[in-house]
Amino acid sequence: MITQRGFVVVFSGILLLTSGFSFVNLYCLMLGVYLLVGVVVSLPLFAMTANISGIEVHRTVDKAKVFSGDFLRVRVTLRNTSRRHFDFIECHDQYPETWILAIGENFIASRIEPGSSVTFSYILQARMRGRYFLGPTEVILRDRLGLHYYIRTLQAPTEILVYPTYKDVRRMEALGKQRQLGLMFGAHRTKVVGMGTDFTGFRAYVPGDSFRSIDWKSSAKRGDLIIRQYEMEKNIQVICMVDASGSMGNGYPENTKLEYAIRAAVLLTHLGLERKDLVGTCVFSDRVHGYVPPKSGPNHMYDVLEALSMAEPRGWSDYESAVEYVVLQTRKRSLIIWLTDLEESPAPLLNAMKTIVANGHKAMVISPFGPWFEVPVGQFGPVEKVLAEAVSEELWERRAKIARALSRFGIEVVNVGPEDFLPTIIKQYELAKRKGVAMF
Amino acid sequence: MKVVTWILRILSTLAFAYMCYLVYSTLQGYWSWDAPYVFIVTVFRLLSFLVFFISLVVMTGFSLIVGGGAPQTLVVGLYNTLILKMWYMQPYGVSGPLETAEEVFQHFAVNFNAIIADLWDTTFVFLYFLGAGVGIALFLQSLYRMEHKYVGGSFLAIQSILIVAAYRHIGNFHITAYPSDFVTFLTSSIQILALVSFAYLEVGYQMIYSSSVGKPIEDREETLKKQLLALRQATRKQDAIERGERVSLTGMSRSSGATAFSFLREAMERKVIGDKDALENLDAVSDVRRLQHFVDELLASDPAARDELTAKAAAPSSYYVIGSTVMGSAFRFLAVIAVSFFLLSPQFILDALNLPPGVENSVAITQPELILLFVVPVVLLFPFIAALIGWFSQQDEEEAITRKQRREKAKREKERERLRKEAEKARRNKERARKGEVVEEGKDEWDRALEETYKEEEESPRG
Q: Are residues B138 and B44 in the same domain?
């Protein structure tokens, strides 16, 4: 390929050549021929040396899995395995559009001798969870006079998994530390009076109580039989059902209903693990994309993060299949928290809820209300505003109906917006803990 | 690399000076040093002549309309003395003040032609000076700015002197002058001039290459320094704010590169926008701090980190650059001379072709356009060969994609297709199931679902 500069030289040659013919001038003719030949004479040689198969690109990253907002160093090594030198090589290492180049530059221009290599690095900030690829690397080879060039794209993708942001957890921990109350601040352990080791108080004997529970000393003092009570601390099992259907992806890129639902799921898992509860996560749309059964191991958080980071808003919500999948794998009574926008037909949702109740589980729906996550009404014109309000009212009415329908099964529907999504999930979790819902 | 660039800079200056000297000596006798002055004066005279003539015609016409006759001698005299002479607008070839308008009309055509002819001659000489001036200015720019356009521009500006001279058939450059003997061809004055001109272009471009091949690394180092400095400043400023100290809001200057640093710029914007939103503000500050920690840790833990960020090791060796410059230029020079001789010596080719006498002695053979007959195919032959080589290289590259990669790709596609089909099947089943339901007109599906729920509960035995 001849560059723009090369074309200028060609046109200069043609100008001189035509001047030579017009004015019958040998010098102009000769110089014209020189320029034309000068541009093309090295072309075959350049084509021979610019064989990109002699260039190897090797990219390394410090970590293959990072949290959204974390920094990542990328090292790129270009190695010339051929016997030829590359006079001028430009290398552009591509990174995902949504990421930010924090420090350094993602390209280099230099010369590579045979057998030698060039290494450069740069620091990126990973933004938005998901599965990303660094690369491909675009290599531009130029001849030393800048008259010709070849562009090649080297496919050497490096997969990076970006976990959902951890900033909510960090914020919560920071707040806890600020209040000097430690990590367990606000924890409400579920207490069951009866079996256990922690003494809780006395009560009068009723027929059927075990004789072993009678506190003889107190009974002697009171003149009546007194029972000593103990309490047992129990944990709950929660399964977070994250709806990843297409409608959950509406709104601004980092503020969609799905993103909030994922942040809520991360926060819930963290809280659960802190309090030794079992928290599982299921990501579904028209099929189950990922299911992490409730566990409490050290790597459990990463399994959940991995499942959540792969969630992409697409398809429709098949509640029945998701419930069927989860219920089959869950033996213990669980609290199933749905994070869904309820924008599907009612029948499958009701059937799914019936299945949950029939299997002895408890459920609740935390539902992001679409219009609150999408374009602010203030940005609309008068006509759009009226239409938006009408649509909102319609949707709200539908929600009221589904809330009524689900309340028949004892399932609560909580409508949330971007501001109260995360506080609501914490509140509901604490409430469930206090009530002792789905203990195991 | 700077040493190599300086050597090439000196060589480029020498080649340019020699090219200018050869151009100057080729047009020996045509350089009149007062030509720029004469040209400007002639242009001014032509304009003054035209202005005078037009104003006289207007004045005469006005007097005829108002006074009914030609203007008074006194008026004409005053007009000439006070206005025209004072502003040096005296018509060409007339020394004293004019007394009658007829005098001007009589001399107009002769005077006008004389000025135009004078201007025609002066313009060519002036253009030589203009070309030389522009050429020198662009050459000086090229030494400082290191851009191809300045080298090319200075080359074309100097060559334009010879093109303009060729238009007037000045210089011994006639088409019949080129010889068929290679040694004579190589040592002729115009060949030397052409070679020196080509050498200037070659050396100029090599000079820019030597500068540009090391420059990105230097720029990279400079950018990194600015970025780290800006980051440090931003962190310190934030610390100072938290300590309750008063800090200047304009502390992050354009010169420190902070505004060219996209990450920090974005963080600053987020901070300004998120002023009302405390959490957004907190995030922006936290991002800058975390980056500072990350960089500090990286530089402390990996001694090679800084060199890799600046790509210091990627700077090419000066010896290699000098060696390849000499080799590359020598190859280009020899190739260009050989191919040009082949193209510019029709006699040599005609002898080799052994054409029949009828063709060999024809008039067309002696015309310069004959060169085109060889130039076009030979010049196109090189890109054709390059395209062939490129095609073969492409084949090599495609083969470089291993079978394993292909298998993996096929597997991924197959899996994606399977999932898509499954989802499609489930969707169809659901739709089919829903079609079976009785749809009551004018009733919302949620209302129906609600009613059905109540109905089921009523039907179920109460316990």
A: yes
Q: Which residue among A51, A101, A167 places its CB closest to the CB of B283?
A: A167
Nearest beta carbon to residue B262 from set A8, A101, A347 = A101
Locate tokens 């309820």: which residue?
A342
Taking a C-beta distance cutoff of 8 angstroms, is the pair A364, A403 a contact? no
- B174 conformational bin, left if phi > 0, alpha if psi -120 to 50, beta if neither: beta
Beta-strand relationship, A226-234 and A190-194: antiparallel
- CA pair distance B204, B325, nearest whole angstrom: 12
Considering the domain architecture, whether residues A286 and A315 belong to the same structural domain is answered as: yes
Q: What is the spatial order of strands in the sheet that A237-243 belongs to? A: A288-295, A278-284, A237-243, A335-339, A362-368, A412-416
State the nearest Cα–Cα gap between B177 and chain A, in angstroms: 7
Tell me whether residues B396 and A51 touch, CB distance under 8 A: yes
Rounded to 10 deg, the angle between the A4-22 and A26-40 helix axes is 160
Give the number of domains in chain B: 2
A173, burial (CB in 10 Å: exposed 0-12, middle 13-18, buried 19+): middle
Q: Is B440 inside a domain boundary? A: no
Burial class (CB in 10 A: 0-12, 13-18, 19+), A366: buried
**CB-based contacts of A402: which residues, under 8 Å, 6+ apart?**
A342, A346, A349, A413, B446
Residues B35 and B165 in one domain: yes
Give A131-148 as a 3 state SS string: EEEECCEEEEEECCCCCE
Q: Are the beta carbons of B220 and A104 separated by less than 8 Å?
A: yes
Task: Encode chain B (463 residues) as per-residue pLDDT tens digits.
Answer: 678 888 889 999 999 999 999 999 888 888 888 888 888 888 887 887 777 778 777 777 777 787 776 666 655 665 665 556 555 555 555 566 566 666 667 767 777 787 788 888 888 888 999 999 999 999 999 998 888 889 989 999 998 888 888 887 776 666 555 566 778 777 888 888 888 998 998 899 888 888 888 777 778 888 888 888 888 887 887 777 777 766 555 444 444 444 445 666 666 666 555 544 555 566 667 788 888 888 889 888 888 888 888 777 777 777 777 887 888 888 888 888 888 787 777 677 777 777 788 877 777 776 767 777 778 888 888 889 988 888 887 776 666 656 666 777 888 888 888 877 877 777 777 666 656 555 555 556 667 766 776 666 666 554 3
- Using the CB atoms, write b or e for A43-73: b if 16+ within 10 Å: bbbbbebbbbbbbbbebebeeebbbbbbbbb
Strand residues in B387-436 grouped as ranges (E): none
- Which among A40, A108, A318 has CB closest to B379? A40
Whose CA is closest to A155, among B445, B397, B334, B188?
B397
Task: State the residue range of the domain holding B99.
Answer: 28-170
Instruction: Examine residue A180 and state whether it is found in any structural domain, yes or no.
Output: no
Task: Quote ipTM for the complex.
Answer: 0.76
**Interchain contact, A30 vs B202, CB within 8 Å:** no
Residue B263: inside a domain? yes
Domains in chain A, number: 4
CB A369 within 8 A of CB A403: no
Q: Omega of the bond prior to A136 within 30 degrees of 0, cis?
A: yes
User: Is residue A293 located within the same domain as residue A399?
Assistant: yes
Q: What is the span of the domain harbouring residue A85?
A: 48-163
With beta carbons less than 8 A apart as the criterion, state whether A356 and A320 touch.
no
Asked if residue A54 and residue A11 are part of one domain, the reply reads: no
Task: Say how far apart CA A113 and CA A61 lie, in whole Å.
Answer: 25
Same domain, A209 and A114: no
Verify whether the Cβ–Cβ distance A5 to B148 is below 8 Å.
Answer: yes
Q: Give the list of residues 6+ apart from residue B50 with CB closer than 8 angstroms, or none.
A: none
Distance (Å, whole) CA A174 – CA A168: 10
Residues of B in contact with A2 (CB under 8 A): 383
DSSP character at residue A52: G
